[in-house]
Design a protein that fits this description.
Order of helices and strands: HHEEEEEEEEEEEEEEEEEEE
Strand content: 35-45%
Number of helices: 2
Mean pLDDT: 89
Radius of gyration: 20 Å
Number of strands: 19
Low-confidence stretches: 1-30
Largest sheet: 8 strands, antiparallel
Structural class: mainly beta
Shape: globular
Helix content: under 10%
Amino acid sequence: MSRRSITVLIAVLLTVLAVFVLPTTSPFRRAHCSDTNFGHGVVCVSGTGKGGNDVNITSKTVDYAPAAGNAVIAAAYTCADRDCQQIPATTLRLGDNLHDPEPCFVASPHSPFALNETSATTQKLQEYIWVCPAVPAGVTRFTVSCSLPTACSYITVTVTEWTGLAPSDVFDTDGGAASSTRQTKATIPTSSPTSYTNVLLYTFLDNTEDRTMSPAPPHRTVLQFYPGNINTAAIAATPGIQTVTTAWDGSDDWYGAIVAIKSATSQPAAVYP
């Protein structure tokens, strides 16, 4: 076999490996929630996420092209330092290839959540969840940026695309929590009762040792682009305090947030004297 033929063969083999091996080993692979029907007209179309071991960074970008007019839910967290021991003093903003920041996105009522573990690793993080009710045409990527250059570490971001959500005034309530002891599960309640029917409960959680999480019903996995990180969702038809619980094998530290997003069929709860 000629040297040129060997070179071509090696190039082909590397291409095959890139296609069939890297997506199963890289923490940056794309995941789909195609046609996942959560009821009451709410459907998750698709999504993607990106993390990594980057410290002292300014931004993190994910490539994703949602259909114009669909809703997008974005979530992100960051540490301030390599060991996640300093309380973040920065903020995060969310932009795309059209605008920075993208004005269609609204942060949940208590974003940024200060998620400070008092368990073994005592990690201190900051997390946001945003919703854009109708994404503009031409968006192909999303970027989460730190308010100070090189002042954020381990920025991790997920985006998911939806239909059937409210066209405006999207949030009902939200909540965040972090571990006080190492556990085999995480439970996060909303900070106040939901006051609308048929809200989408959406979460972004992580555990320190990247143990694969499984949500307890009625929540289902929306996106799990890397072990430990998980977005879950469920419809809460009846107003009240809402919770999410995820479980894993072995004890670990954890943190995360839950938001209640109005669907297109949401109605204010009846108020009685």
